[in-house]
Amino acid sequence: MAQITLIEGVTLALARAMQEDPSVVVLGEDVGVNGGVFRATAGLQQTFGDERVIDTPLAEVMIAGVTVGMAAQGMKPVAEAQFCGFTMPMIDHLMCHAGRMRNRTRGRLSCPMVLRFPTGGGIHAPEHHSESPESLFAHMPGLRVVMPSSPSRAYGLLLAAIRDPDPVIFMEPKRIYRWQREEVIDDGEELPLDVCFTLRDGQDITLVTWGAMVKETLQAADQLEKQGVSVEVIDVATISPLDMDTIIESVERTGRCVIIQEAPKHCGLASEIAANLADAGIFNLLAPVKRVCGYDTVMPLYRNEMKYMPSVRRIVDAAQQVLEVS
Q1: Does the keyword Oxidoreductase belong to this entry (predicted)?
Q2: Do domains 2-184 and 197-324 have the same CATH topology?
């Protein structure tokens, strides 16, 4: 058992999947010789060779098309886009082909591919490197969308994604790539997709979040606990399909909910969760649902980047507002 970071959990899962299944291949820009821009694939080409860890040209459309073609022919490709903003040219292949392959062929073909890429802000990267487009991918039928928030969840969820028979978008919150270390056993055990993870049990309020915002949400929960508030924290983990059962069951107990996302507020996943609570859990709510989000603008350059993202203070303030409603 080793103490590893989130990015090392990704590397460990890729190596385990490639060791167990010769049909798993990794491809993308600089994933081989250089080991990836964030070193997620470091050492894999030396271990598995350049026919299974493939350096591609700087051409995202080509990477997506080749990945879909490989998957349709029985391989299990894991493609990397260097940054979330670079996935935009890939959307045609993802939405029009990967997500529709099973339906289009009436089950004759599936598309067991993974597209993984770093997402979110917080590392002072330039434009096109700091978006949080999870709701965009979640709106595309046929795509599963996953975002881990810890080393163990990165390892277990990526293994599950690679083994899934349908396409998975695996979004890695780069701000917490090396935030924490955690003991992870490299035993090949996957974690379940399509379920939320309850990180902390509580009775007074439910905080729902995912990805890098788990860090600030847990810190906010610590502050609220010091004020005598019993806080339940839920990590959504699988953005689509969304496990509302776990969230609704939590709100049935607490009666109050705050949803935290780094992405802009308008048309985001937080809005979808709030709408589902209005549909199925409104009679359990003791106060309106609050959303703490990024702003409806382009992620600002690095001097204002941290002002854009939800802070511990904003989360605590929203929770206190919800708790004050009697």
Answers
A1: yes
A2: yes
Q: Locate tokens 């969230």: which residue?
A: 247
Per-residue tokens: 326: 């009697």
CATH number of 197-324: 3.40.50.920
> For residue 303, what pLDDT is reported?
79
Q: Is the dihedral of CA 100, 119, 23, 29 positive or negative?
A: positive
pLDDT of 76 > 90? The answer is yes
Q: Please, what is the end-to-end C-alpha distance for the chain in angstroms?
A: 48
pLDDT given at position 258: 98
Which residues on adjacent β-strands are paired with residue 190? none
Q: How many CA atoms lie within 13 A of 132 on its CB side?
A: 34
97 is catalytic: no
pLDDT band at 302 (very low <50, low <70, confident <90, very high): confident
Helices (H), the chain: 6-20, 44-48, 60-72, 91-96, 101-104, 134-138, 151-163, 213-226, 244-254, 269-280, 302-308, 312-324
Q: Report if pTM > 0.85.
A: yes
Superfamily for the 2-184 domain: Thiamin diphosphate (ThDP)-binding fold, Pyr/PP domains (3.40.50.970)
**Are the C-beta atoms of 164 and 196 separated by less than 8 Å?**
no
- Asked if residues 152 and 182 have their Cβ atoms less than 8 Å apart, the reply is yes
Among candidate residues 173, 188, 178, 211, the one with its CA nearest the CA of residue 8: 178
Q: For 35-51, what is each residue's pLDDT tens digit?
A: 999 999 999 999 999 99
Q: What is the pLDDT of residues 156-191, one digit of tens each?
A: 999 999 999 999 999 999 999 999 999 999 999 999
Q: Quickly list H helices, 76-204.
A: 91-96, 101-104, 134-138, 151-163
Domain range summary for the chain, segments of one domain joined by + = 2-184, 197-324
